[in-house]
Design brief:
Radius of gyration of chain B: 18 Å
Oligomer: heterodimer
Number of strands of chain B: 4
Distance between the termini of chain A: 43 Å
CATH topology of the largest domain in chain B: Glutaredoxin
CATH architecture of the largest domain in chain B: 3-Layer(aba) Sandwich
Number of strands of chain A: 10
CATH class of the largest domain in chain B: Alpha Beta
CATH class of the largest domain in chain A: Alpha Beta
Distance between the termini of chain B: 33 Å
Order of helices and strands of chain B: HHHHEHHEEEH
Structural class of chain B: alpha+beta
Bound molecules: flavin mononucleotide, iron/sulfur cluster, FE2/S2 (inorganic) cluster
Number of domains of chain B: 2
CATH superfamily of the largest domain in chain A: NADH-ubiquinone oxidoreductase 51kDa subunit
Shape of chain B: elongated
Strand order of the largest sheet of chain A: 3-2-1-4
Structural class of chain A: alpha/beta
CATH topology of the largest domain in chain A: Rossmann fold
Helix content of chain B: 40-55%
Shape of chain A: globular
Chain lengths: ~450, ~160
C-alpha cells in the first residue's frame, strides 16, 4: 500500500482539479496528442495488449470488445460512455466526473478515436447534477481548445460528445437498456446477440464502456502497456483464456467502517486489507459479520471469508457472482442478515424492468416473502422458496434477458446458504407457532415498492 | 381535458435545440420530458401530446416512455424542491431509513407526497452514488451528507423559512 501512488485519483483534492488548466499542468491531453499521432488500429492494439478489462461490472476485455466492431463499416459508429452508476455501494464514477472530468473526457476521446466513433453520448444518471455541470463545462473547454469538434488538433479526426441524462432507473446502466433509453424508449434490455458492437444505438455499431474504463485508457496511452501490466493479478499461465486482473482499480468502501471512501489500489487486494489498511477497520471496534464484495448484485461474504481477493476471479471463488463494481459494503456484528436481505430484495423488486416474467415476478415474490419474515410471520419453508427463486432467475440459469436478475439472485443464494442458521432462528423466535407451517398463508398488505 | 397549449415558446425552443444531437427525433424524448419537468414540475398529458407532435411520434409512444421512468409526475406539480432520501444498503446501515421516517413525521407526508405549503416533495431514492457520505439526501441539486435527525431538522426549517 505504501508503495503505490494513485494514478486515477492523482488529481483529486488539488485545487480546481476539474479545470482544463489544472489538468494540463499535470500532463493532461498529452495522451490524446500521442494517440492521434498513432493509427486507430495501433491504439486499439495497445489497449488490447494492456489487458484492460471493463470496470463497469462485467469485466469484459476492452480492446477485444473494440475489435468486434465491423471492419470497413461506412458509419456512423457510436460510443456510449456509461455514467449511469447506480449499483448500490458504488460512487467512483461520480468522483472522477466531479473532480477530474477532463481525465474522463480525454480517455473518452481516445477511445472514440480508436473505435472510429464520430458521436459519443455520455449517459449520465439524473442524480449527479454536479457531475453534469462539471462534465458540460469540461466539454465546452475541449471544444474551445480544439480537442473536440471538427479536425481535432489537425488530425483529420472529428468527434462530438453530448451529455444525455437518465431519469432515475437502475436498468439504464445495463448496456442495451442504456441504448433503448438513449433512443427515447423504455429501458428494456435487448436480447443478445446481436451485441451492441454489431448493432447498437440507432441500429449502428456501438461501443459501451464505463467511466473508469475510459480513465484507464487515458493512462495506458500515456504510460504504456508495461506500466499497466506491471500491477494486479497476472493471467493464470495454465489457462490460456484467463485475461488476469491487471492495472489499478478504484475501490468504493462504505457501511460500517471508520473511513468510508474511494481508494485506489492495484487489482487484487483483499477485503480485509481494504477494510483495515484503507478504511481504518470496522467502526466502533466491532467485528465484520458480512461484507458485500462488489456492489449488492455480487452477493455476500461471511465473516470467515475476508481474505477474498478483490480481483475479477476472487469473489467467484467464494461463491459470489464476481467483482462487479468493486464496491465493498461492510456490515458489523449488530446487523440482522434478515434486514440486509430485505433491503436488497426491495431494491431489485423496485428496479426490475418487468420485461421477463421470472425476474418481474421472482423479485417481487422474494420481497413479499422477506417482508413477511421480517414482520414475524415467516415459515421454515419460505427459505426453500427464496432459494428456488434465487436458483431460478438470471441469465446464468438462462431464464431472463439481462443480468439484473442474476444480481437479485446472488444475495438470496449467498445470504440464505451462508447464514441459514440465523434465518431459521429468526423465524423460530418471531413465529414459533407458524415455524413448520406449510399451508398457504394469507398475503400481507404490500409495502410500497414504487 | 383542457386543450390549451402548455408548452411555451421557450420550452419548444429548448427542445428543438436538442434535435441536431441525435440521428432521429425520438431520442429527444427524455431531454424534452426533462425540459417540461423543469418548467412545470410535472409533465401533464397535454404536454405529452405536444411533445409527441414536436418529435413526430404518437402520444402513446411518449407516454409509454414517460411512464417507464417513475421520475416524471403527471397529476400535479411537485414541490418547489424535490428531495430524495436514500434507502439503499450503505445508507440504511447508517440510519437512512430512520431519517426518512423522521422527516415524514415532521412534515406530515408519506414518501412521494408534497407538503401542504407546496415547498417540498419528499421521496425515497435508491443509492444516490454517494455512499461514503451515508446516509444522504439529494435536495434539488444539493447533496446533503451524513444526515441525522438534527441535520434533517435544520434542512426542514430552512425549507419552511425560504420564501
Ligand atoms: C442491471 C445492470 C446494471 C448495470 N449498470 C451499470 C452501470 O451503472 N454502469 C456501468 O458502467 N455498467 C453497468 N452495467 C454493465 C454494463 O451492461 C456494461 O457491461 C458496461 O457498461 C460495459 O462497460 P465496461 O466494459 O467498460 O465495463 C450494468 C449491468 C447490468 C446487468
Ligand atoms: S432480467 Fe429483469 S431487469 Fe433484465 S430484462 Fe428481464 S425483467 Fe428486465
Ligand atoms: S446507498 Fe445511499 S448513496 Fe449509496
Amino acid at each position: 500500500m505504501a508503495t503505490y501512488e494513485p494514478v486515477l485519483l492523482a488529481n483529486i483534492g488539488r485545487e480546481n482539479s476539474h479545470t482544463r488548466e489544472v489538468y494540463e499542468q499535470t500532463g493532461g491531453y498529452q495522451a490524446l496528442r500521442k494517440s492521434l499521432a498513432m493509427s486507430q488500429l495501433d491504439v486499439t492494439e495497445q489497449v488490447k495488449q494492456s489487458g484492460l478489462r471493463g470496470r463497469g461490472g462485467a469485466g469484459f476485455p476492452t480492446g477485444l470488445k473494440w475489435t468486434f466492431l465491423p471492419k470497413d463499416h461506412p458509419g456512423p459508429i457510436y460510443f456510449c460512455l456509461n455514467a449511469d452508476e447506480s449499483e448500490p455501494g458504488t460512487f467512483n464514477n461520480r468522483i472522477l466526473m466531479e473532480d477530474d472530468p477532463h481525465q474522463v473526457i480525454e480517455g473518452l476521446i481516445i477511445s472514440c478515436y480508436a473505435t472510429r466513433a464520430t458521436t459519443a453520448y455520455i449517459y449520465l444518471r439524473f442524480e449527479y447534477p454536479k457531475a453534469y455541470r462539471r462534465l458540460q463545462a469540461a466539454i465546452d473547454e475541449c471544444y474551445a481548445a480544439g480537442y473536440l469538434g471538427q479536425n481535432i488538433l489537425g488530425s483529420g479526426y472529428s468527434l462530438d460528445i453530448y451529455l444525455h441524462r437518465g431519469a432515475a432507473a437502475y436498468i439504464c446502466g445495463e448496456e442495451t437498456g442504456l441504448i433503448e433509453s438513449l433512443e427515447g424508449k423504455r429501458a428494456w434490455p435487448r436480447i443478445k446477440p446481436p451485441f451492441p458492437a454489431v448493432e447498437g444505438a440507432f441500429r449502428k455499431p456501438t461501443v459501451v464502456n464505463n467511466v473508469e474504463t475510459a480513465a484507464c485508457v487515458r493512462h495506458i496511452m500515456e504510460k504504456g502497456v508495461e506500466w499497466f501490466r506491471g500491477m494486479g493479478v497476472q493471467p493464470d499461465p495454465s489457462n490460456p483464456r484467463d485475461p488476469g486482473s491487471l492495472g489499478p482499480k478504484l475501490y468504493c468502501l462504505s457501511g460500517h467502517v471508520e473511513r468510508p471512501g474511494c481508494y485506489e489500489a492495484p487489482l487484487g487486494i483483499t477485503v480485509r486489507q481494504l477494510i483495515d489498511e484503507y478504511g481504518g477497520g470496522v467502526w466502533k471496534g466491532r467485528q465484520a459479520k458480512a461484507v458485500v464484495p462488489g456492489g449488492i448484485s455480487m452477493g455476500l461474504l461471511g465473516p470467515d471469508e475476508l481474505d477474498c481477493p478483490l480481483d475479477f476471479a476472487g469473489p467467484g471463488k467464494y461463491g459470489c457472482l464476481g467483482l462487479g463494481t468493486a464496491a465493498v459494503v461492510v456490515m458489523d456484528d449488530t446487523v440482522s442478515i434478515v434486514d440486509y436481505l430485505h433491503n436488497s430484495a426491495r431494491f431489485f423488486a423496485h428496479e426490475s424492468c418487468g420485461q421477463c416474467t421470472p425476474c418481474r415476478e421472482g423479485t417481487s415474490w422474494a420481497l413479499k416473502i422477506l417482508s413477511r419474515i421480517k414482520a414475524g410471520r415467516g415459515r421454515l419453508i419460505d427459505l426453500q422458496l427464496l432459494l428456488e427463486i434465487g436458483d431460478g432467475i438470471g441469465i446464468i440459469p438462462g431464464s431472463t434477458i439481462c443480468g439484473l436478475s442474476d444480481g437479485a439472485a446472488w444475495p438470496l443464494k449467498n445470504a440464505i446458504r451462508k447464514f441459514r442458521g440465523e434465518f431459521e432462528e429468526y423465524i423460530r423466535k418471531s413465529n414459533p407457532s407458524g415455524y413448520n407451517n406449510t399451508e398457504p398463508v394469507p398475503a400481507m398488505p404490500m409495502e410500497s415498492v414504487h | 381535458m383542457s386543450t390549451e397549449r402548455v408548452l411555451t415558446d421557450q420550452m419548444v425552443a429548448e427542445i428543438k435545440a436538442y434535435f441536431p444531437r441525435y440521428p432521429n427525433r425520438q431520442a429527444v424524448t427524455l431531454p424534452a420530458l426533462h425540459i417540461v419537468n423543469e418548467h412545470l414540475r410535472h409533465v401533464p398529458l397535454q404536454a405529452v401530446v405536444e411533445v409527441a407532435e414536436l418529435l413526430g411520434l404518437a402520444p402513446a409512444q411518449v407516454q409509454d416512455t414517460l411512464s417507464f421512468y417513475g421520475f416524471f409526475k403527471q397529476d400535479a406539480p411537485g414541490g418547489e424542491t424535490r428531495a430524495w432520501v436514500c434507502r439503499s444498503l450503505s445508507c440504511a446501515l447508517r440510519g437512512g431509513e430512520e431519517v426518512l421516517e423522521h422527516m415524514c413525521k415532521r412534515l406530515g407526508v408519506r414518501p412521494g407526497e408534497t407538503t401542504a405549503d407546496g415547498k417540498l416533495t419528499l421521496e425515497f431514492g435508491e443509492c444516490l452514488g454517494a455512499c461514503e457520505y451515508a446516509p444522504c439526501m439529494l435536495a434539488g441539486e444539493e447533496l446533503h451528507t451524513c444526515l441525522d435527525e438534527s441535520t434533517a431538522d435544520k434542512f426542514i426549517d430552512s425549507m419552511r423559512s425560504s420564501s
